[in-house]
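Letters spell out the chain; the tokens describe the backbone. To illustrate:

===
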Amino acid sequence: MWHVLGGTCELLLANARHIRNLPGRQGEVKDATWIADLLAHGLIRGSFVPPGPMQGLRDLTRSRKQLVREVSQHTQRIHKVLEGANLQLTAVLTDVLGQSGRATIEAVIAGEQEPTKLAGLAGGNRLKASPAELAAPLRGRVTEHHGFLLELHVGQIDALEGAVQGVEARLGEEALAPLQEAVEHCACARGRPGSRRPACKPRGRPCAPRGVTCARSACV
């Protein structure tokens, strides 16, 4: 309804708690009349409604957040399946879904159960522990059921990560394009994560290193 009437008249989104706390009669029959009277006297404070481009940006960021949450959920299920199969892969690797972890899980899905071979896939040549110490946590009891669940969750994670990349591409190409100047200003004001470049300083002092001038209008 908001989007249908948005271009025809001035709309105001009222907060139900704010209206309920205002003095006056609030019976079910006279609610509409009472609210209209409050609006005519300017007693209803409107809530913030983002403009169209910002609403699209919000939808994309919320979708990305949900997709990332689902990736985390499937990762936890993979941990649970590995524990059920008595494969303590986390004792060998920190990131189960990293390059070595993926190779090990794919080998398990393919039917490999030899602990020494799994330890080699988990990066036995790059770790300080001996092959026997690496193979000990990987002596599991993997059934066809475990392999099916692992393949299912890995496939779901791949699909979700592809969806996240699609949303991020959409964010970069369209949603953030009108707000690029504001994004650059925020990055300049706060300093980029992992960068040695200091944040912008007040009173017109340069944010870039000595001898380099920041091209952003906020820093000039």
